[in-house]
Design goal:
This protein is mainly alpha-helical. It has helices at residues 10-18, 22-34, 38-42, 77-83, 103-119, 137-151, 153-160, 163-170, 174-184, 192-230, and strands at residues 49-50, 56-60, 71-75. A three-stranded antiparallel sheet has the order 1-2-3. The longest helix is centred in the last third of the chain and has 39 residues, at 192-230. The N and C termini lie far apart (72 Å).
Length: 231
């Protein structure tokens, strides 16, 4: 039995993040902007974060993924602003969000999220009576939906770490991956101000790209004209 799954909305996402603790809100921002699984996020160590890149790049170690295949994810500038203070006074091999990962770590976070969901009266369930409409995995689904709309289905699957699509993604250059993420970022940002800023930056990039294409076209036209005149 497969019921239609109501998607998260920007309003619900904002409500959850604005009413949660610093630790929980940071995790939710990372899940929203990277497409990570919650287990992958809780496994993150300080050394997995590459602060020299734009956007911020995160290495998801093979041992922590469902497919047992290492991949690279990105997080939004909004998520990085929330994450950065949590890295202070930690060693490279320290876990960021918990002291030590155990099976109970995942259960504990699920319980925290459950209390938040109840507090906000977001307790609608599917007909099976077990699963909630608003759940942690829905953040990953939201990321996939936005990535598919903005970048296409294949890239959306690749960013989630689906093995069938990873080879194609791995062949892209670092610059190409960064450019794609910048296009996606405004659609996986919670803050209205930061979303608008991201959209303006993306429009500026598009204008520069169009101008570059126009300049190249003019060069080609001039070249063709010279060839015709020399005949």
């Amino acid at each position: 039995i497969r019921e239609i799954k109501p998607p998260l909305t920007p309003e619900i996402i904002k409500l959850l993040i604005n009413n949660s603790s610093k630790n929980v809100s940071t995790i939710l921002l990372i899940l929203l902007s990277s497409g990570m699984r919650i287990g992958e996020c809780l496994h993150l160590q300080v050394r997995d974060i590459d602060v020299t890149t734009n956007p911020i790049q995160i290495k998801i170690r093979a041992a922590t993924t469902k497919s047992r295949q290492e991949r690279i994810a990105y997080i939004s500038s909004e998520a990085w602003a929330a994450l950065k203070p949590l890295l202070l006074n930690k060693e490279p091999e320290d876990l960021i969000f918990i002291a030590k990962y155990t099976k109970a770590s995942l259960i504990s976070f699920e319980m925290q999220f459950g209390r938040l969901r109840k507090k906000l009266n977001l307790t609608d369930k599917y007909d099976d009576g077990r699963n909630y409409h608003v759940n942690i995995h829905a953040f990953r689904a939201y990321f996939h939906t936005q990535a598919t709309k903005v970048l296409g289905g294949d890239i959306g699957h690749a960013l989630l770490g689906h093995r069938k699509y990873l080879d194609m993604y791995l062949r892209l250059s670092v610059e190409e991956k960064s450019e794609m993420y910048h296009k996606l970022e405004p659609y996986i940002t919670v803050s209205d101000e930061m979303r608008q800023k991201g959209m303006l930056q993306e429009k500026d990039r598009q204008i520069i790209e169009l101008q570059s294409m126009k300049d190249e076209l003019n060069k080609q036209k001039a070249k063709i004209k010279r060839l015709e005149e020399s005949r």
